[in-house]
Amino acid sequence: MSKIHLASIADQLPRAWNSTVVGRAAGANLKVLRMDDAAYPDESHDFDEALLVLDGCMRLALQGQVTEVHAGEVFIVPAGVPHAVAPGSHGTLVIIDR
After folding, report:
1. 3-state SS string for the chain
2. Alpha carbon distance 23, 5 (integer Å)
3. Would you give per-residue pLDDT tens digits along the chain (98 residues)?
4. Which residues does residue 39 pair with via DSSP β-bridges, in sequence order?
5. CATH number for the segment(s) 6-97
6. With 0-12 CB in 10 A as exposed, 13-18 as middle and 19+ as buried, what is 8?
7. How far apart are CA 32 and CA 12, in angstroms?
8. CA–CA separation, 71 and 35 (whole Å)
């Protein structure tokens, strides 16, 4: 076991919105990525997805509304709910999913 510095890993990724799995716990993937103010298209999953903002702000678009998720906050998107990321999102995002 070793500790992981998530922001450093995100900074080293070749491009924004390109997540990498940094570990697994209790059957879930722990991913990190860098947001760069660009939008990310609509998607949905057959599992719940936790979106944890480490630094910066994510503008999450779902069900016709945009919710800002700030550093230190997490938003759990229920399975089957379409969601996208609106322009202006920046910083480091951790995704916990299957």
Report:
1. CCCCCHHHHHHHCCCCCCCEEEEEECCEEEEEEEEECCCEEEECCCCCEEEEEEEEEEEEEECCEEEEEECCCEEEECCCCCEEECCCCEEEEEEEEC
2. 12
3. 689 999 999 999 999 999 999 999 999 999 999 999 999 999 999 999 999 999 999 999 999 999 999 999 999 999 999 999 999 999 999 999 99
4. none
5. 2.60.120.10
6. exposed
7. 11
8. 13
